[in-house]
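queue> pop job 88
queue> type: inverse folding (structure -> sequence)
queue> payload:
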């Protein structure tokens, strides 16, 4: 049986797709609101920061969802701090990566969103384990 090829996202998201993707990605991130700070919450963006960090002497960025013209971005700062969290990342999710800690989506993808939710949970756990806040 041949492996499933990585699906290529459409060139541009429709307004409906962007809204659906934003809602799904916002839900992934907002599941971790408890213990974090909502720093933006609007129709084009949602972001979370950490409480004050004694180690860094400031609040830290945790993650964000941002609606862009052609796609919706999911930023997850723990990936920048701990790149080993990306070990074992699926080819499908890796294809959505832009830079070191950002994923772009033009259409909903339940399997990739489940993987991203697990990655988000692992990122928060790692930040807490490292006592960053």
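queue> result:
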């Amino acid at each position: 049986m041949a492996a499933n090829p990585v699906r290529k996202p459409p060139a541009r998201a429709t307004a409906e797709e962007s809204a659906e993707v934003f809602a799904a990605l916002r839900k992934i991130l907002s599941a971790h609101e408890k213990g974090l700070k909502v720093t933006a919450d609007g129709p084009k963006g949602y972001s979370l920061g950490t409480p004050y960090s004694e180690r860094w002497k400031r609040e830290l960025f945790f993650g964000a969802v941002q609606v862009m013209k052609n796609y919706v971005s999911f930023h997850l700062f723990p990936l920048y701090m701990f790149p080993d969290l990306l070990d074992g990342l699926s080819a499908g999710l890796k294809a959505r990566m832009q830079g070191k800690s950002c994923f772009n989506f033009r259409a909903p993808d339940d399997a990739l969103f489940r993987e991203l939710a697990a990655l988000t949970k692992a990122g928060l756990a790692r930040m807490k384990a490292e006592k960053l806040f």
